[in-house]
Amino acid sequence: MLPSLAAGAASGPPPRPASRTGTGLAALGVLAFSLTFPSTVWGLESFGPWSFVGLRSVLAALIAGTVLLATRARLPERRHLGGLLVVAGGVVAGFPLLTTLALRTTTSSHAAVVVGLLPLTTAIFSSLRTGARPSRTFWGAAVAGAAVVIVFTVAQSGGALSSGDLYLFGALLVCAAGYSEGGRLARVMPGWQVIGWALMLSLPVAVAGSVVALSFEPVELNAHGIVGLVWVAAGSTFLGLYVWYRGMAEIGVERASQLQLAQPLLTLAWSFLLLGEEVSAAAPIAAVAVLVCIAATQRSGGARRRGEAGSTVVAGGTGGPGGSGRGGGGTGGPVGTGAHPEACAPEGTSGGASVSAGDGPAGEDLGGPGGRTTAPTAPRS
Predict the structure, then answer these.
(1) Stretch 273-291: mean pLDDT
(2) Given this model, what pLDDT does residue 18 score?
(3) What is the mean pLDDT of residues 272-293?
């Protein structure tokens, strides 16, 4: 069983540096994702593209369903279903299908170009969706990192765009939407449940698609095909997204997304080691440049968010007048107002306490005039 999946809300772990832990979890997710393209190339040795994507989703959903049943997870609230459908459409179905179709005509190294743009696109989607306003330093480092990755990967492929590029750019858009929405949901429900319920929602379509695809696409099983299928289902789709969304919930969508600047370079390394694809001598230089950009985004400070009552909430800042917010990255709002739904502090205390979305329904004011109210803590991943 995954650690802390069934952890109760009444008692929590001792305080720890949330930003460091969240960064580590998100980095593990990036490491898992970096193997996706090489594993998909292996999988296509045994399966057709439609069969591969369908079986990948079915297997991942079976793993998720087993964990959800074992931990007796509650059904998601109706208000979260729309967001879960966006996650399902973006990272469970859309991105795997479009990248798999692209990898029929392009190499794993060339396909890494889509990941070069993904961190910046995810940050833009999240900013539009949540009202977050990262600093100019953040945006400058993000754009610089994306530029380094794009130049490097395009140069690596000889500067030529393949017929699969339309698939790759489509995958970029749907995945960024799924990441930003999943990161938002991971602040109000455990991260592993975000991907778990998204997979369960996609299961009926995945089963039907697999049956149809297997009826007209040939299957030639070999070791590479089986290993590739198992990894993208268990590693990339379930475990990778579990730690990814949990990390996003702790450090924010914008900061977590910039860790993916390292993913194309990791994918190039795996492509060389596992697939025998050639990697240029410029890789170490690009790697150092990208790491500098990542460090700049991680040190640029929290993103400002628009508060419910017209105030501005700053992730990782202090509480508003009359009180203080405490907890990982959260803030206490102005007296008598609810904290922004994207905040994730366990509780805020003041003359009229406000509590973040990590403690109750998004945007709900759980404080009262002249008193202190503590809401039950929502389950955390």
Answers:
(1) 77
(2) 54
(3) 78
Q: What are the tokens at 56?
A: 């990948």
272 neighbors 279 (Cβ within 8 angstroms): yes
Three-class secondary structure assignment of the chain: CCCCCCCCCCCCCCCCCHHHHHHHHHHHHHHHHCCHHHHHHHHCCCCCHHHHHHHHHHHHHHHHHHHHHHCCCCCCCHHHHHHHHHHHHHHHHHHHHHHHHHCCCCCHHHHHHHHHHHHHHHHHHHHHHHCCECCHHHHHHHHHHHHHHHHHHHHHCCCCCCCCHHHHHHHHHHHHHHHHHHHHHCCCCCHHHHHHHHHHHHHHHHHHHHHHHHHHCCCCCCHHHHHHHHHHHHHHHHHHHHHHHHHHHHHCHHHHHHHHHHHHHHHHHHHHHHHCCCCCCCHHHHHHHHHHHHHHHHCCCCCEEECCCCCEEECCCCCCCCEEEECCCCCCCCCCCCCCCCCCCCEEEECECCCCCCCCCCCCCCCCCCECCCCCCCCCC
Beta bridge partners of residue 313, listed in sequence order: 305
Q: Which of 155-164, 278-287, 304-313 has the lowest mean pLDDT?
A: 304-313
List all residues 6 or more positions away from 232 whose beta carbon is below 8 Å from its beta carbon. Answer: 36, 39, 40, 43, 56, 96
Determine the Cα angle at 4 with ends 94 and 260, to 5°: 40
* Residues paired with residue 312 on neighbouring β-strands, in sequence order: 306
Please state the length of the chain. 381
- pLDDT tens-digit profile of 224-248? 999 999 999 999 988 898 888 888 8
Contacts of 378 (CB under 8 A, 6+ apart): 9, 188, 189, 358, 359, 360
Asked if residue 198 lies in contact with residue 88, where contact means CB atoms within 8 angstroms, the answer is yes
State yes or no: pLDDT of 138 exceeds 90: no
Q: What is the pLDDT of residues 181-199, one digit of tens each?
A: 988 898 888 878 999 999 9
